[in-house]
Structures are given as C-alpha cells and as structure tokens.
Amino acid sequence: MKTVNEVSKLTGVSIRTLQYYDKIGLLKPTEYTESGYRLYDDAALERLGQILLFRELEFPLKDIKDIVTRSDFDKGLALDQQIELLELKKEHIENLISMCRGLKLRGVRHLDFTAFDSSKLDEYAKRAKEQWGNTPEYKEFEEKNGKRSKNEEKRMMADFMKIFEEFGAMKDQDPASLEVQDQVKKLQNFISGHYYQCTNEILSGLGKMYAGGGEFTENIDKIGGEGTAEFTQRAIQIYCG
Known about the structure:
Layout: E1 2-3, H1 4-11, H2 15-23, E2 31-32, E3 38-40, H3 42-56, H4 61-68, H5 75-106, H6 119-132, H7 136-145, H8 150-168, H9 178-194, H10 200-210, H11 214-224, H12 228-240
Antiparallel strand pairs: 1-3, 2-3
Helix pairs in contact: 3-4, 5-6, 8-9, 8-11, 8-12, 9-12, 10-12
C-alpha cells in the first residue's frame, strides 16, 4: 500500500488532483486508515495509469470515468496504446533535439522544420479517440467540432471564457441570486449549443472540475480573478439543486 503522498511523488500527480479524483469517483483509494488517510494498492496505481493515458489523449474526465469503469474495458489494449503514445512522443522529442543540435552547429539556414511535425501524434490521438470516445456527448462534440474552422474555434473559446469573466464580476454576490443563477443558465446553454447537450448532471460534474485545481481552475481564475472557479462551482451546485 502507498499513501497519497507516496503516489503523488511516484506519478507526478498532485495530492489535490488525487483527492479530486476520489471525490468524483474516478479513482477511489483502496482503503482509508483510521485517521482518514488514503491508501492505494497496485490495482489502484494501474487504474491511475489508465486515467493518465486518456488525459494524454485529452479526454474529459467524465468520459474517462465512463471508459475505465466499463465491464468490457480492455486493460491490455489501453496499456499497448500507452506504450505506443510514449514511443511516438520519444521520437518527436528526439527529432527536436537533433534539430536544435543542427541549429547550434550549422545555423538557421539549415533549419529542418520537419522536426516540428506532430502529425503522427495527432493521428494516433485521433484513432484512439475514435475507438474509446463512443459516449453520446463525445460523439455530439466531435460532430459539431468537425464543422468548425480554426478561427471559429478561437472565437467560440473567447466567447466561452467571456462567460467566466462575467462570473468573476459577480463574485461579491450571493451565488444563489437570480442574476448569478441566470449566468449559470447562460453557461449551460452555451455548452449545449456549441459542444454537447449539457444536462444538470453533466453541468454539476463540470462545476466540480472547474474548481478541482489544475489548468481549468488556473485559466478560469486568470480570466475572472482569483476565486472565480470556486464561485462558479458553488453557483452551479445551487443551480443543479
């Protein structure tokens, strides 16, 4: 058995993230000590490795939970994909190292831009997502996203982050107030209109993810000010009842 601190040092996953995975039911500790400390066995570490694989493929946490808890989940296939992904990343990094060494020796005129080509990684991620990403929400997201240009994606993301900027301006209000709750409805409608049908259950899970630490929390707090992600999560939970 390993403690949460030992697992964090071993895997590079923060303690806060492990606590969040426990909270949302994605990775439950094997058991708890009498003092309430989390303990993880080899099976839990194996599950964490599977989770990290799908995070590398940029799957949402909700989809990862659906995948790894399926009765027909193929652990061997997931491990093979993890190995292939790491080999492709290794190849990509080695190409970049060779390019930098060549730049140092021969100068910019001999710069080989093919080292920046990440098409193999992109193609691998695409194939993996096609195989695992068969939830209705993910299929709807893929269908809508495939019809958008890069500029449209950028504009849509800017509009999405604008919603959190507006949440940030409301932080001094009661999250249960009519104005804040209308803002939550605006967020839900935006997700449903641009990504996938956002039920209250999905919205509640997103709210926990927004305030769960990591890039989501950092980006939301950056655009709306410190505490915006947590405020948004509180407002969402009130909205979802």
